[in-house]
């Protein structure tokens, strides 16, 4: 089967996009102020990508192993998206709990993660996506590797690709046409 057909088949049932944060929504860099408060840098382009998803009826959530004050990610990207706090070393239980809470099955989830800790979820989710800087084993486990690096439009690229594969991109972009 051609790659594009395979991707279209994987994209068809997806209703949720679940995102690892460090290395996917950010470039993996961490900055701290003198009081030890953590700073993250986000791409505004990713925020728009997630809002486009919402227009296509696809919801997004963050699955992060690192403690972030509640609501920070959503506010930073100007969108409504829940944050699911996973154990930093084991994301699978949080993923399973998330699916149960929303009545989802694996094929309905696109998961985007960039490191070994994401592998169990990437192997489970219907549409696994990663970034070019991910280790080879992670890239091999994924159906799609974005061209853009984490924190520099990777989420935007995955969002638009998903909408396109589902035939929803034109609808999501309608408001920009007039
Ligand atoms: Mg990560």
UniProtKB/TrEMBL annotation:
Q: Which keywords belong to this entry? A: Hydrolase, Magnesium, Metal-binding
Looking at the UniProt entry, the stretches that span the membrane are none
Main enzyme class = hydrolase
| Residues given in the record as Mg(2+) binding sites | 20, 114
Q: One MF term from GO for this chain?
A: N-acylneuraminate cytidylyltransferase activity
Swiss-Prot/TrEMBL cofactor(s)? Mg(2+)
Binding, substrate: 22, 51, 66, 75, 91
Does the keyword field hold Nucleus? Answer: no
EC number(s) from the headed UniProt entry: 3.1.3.45
Q: SUPFAM superfamilies from the xrefs?
A: HAD-like (SSF56784)
Q: Does the keyword Metal-binding apply?
A: yes
Subunit architecture? Homotetramer.
Under the heading PANTHER family, the entry gives: HAD SUPERFAMILY MEMBERS CMAS AND KDSC, N-ACYLNEURAMINATE CYTIDYLYLTRANSFERASE
Identify its protein family.
Belongs to the KdsC family.
Q: What is this protein called?
A: 3-deoxy-D-manno-octulosonate 8-phosphate phosphatase
Per the UniProt entry, what species is this protein from, by scientific name? Dissulfurirhabdus thermomarina
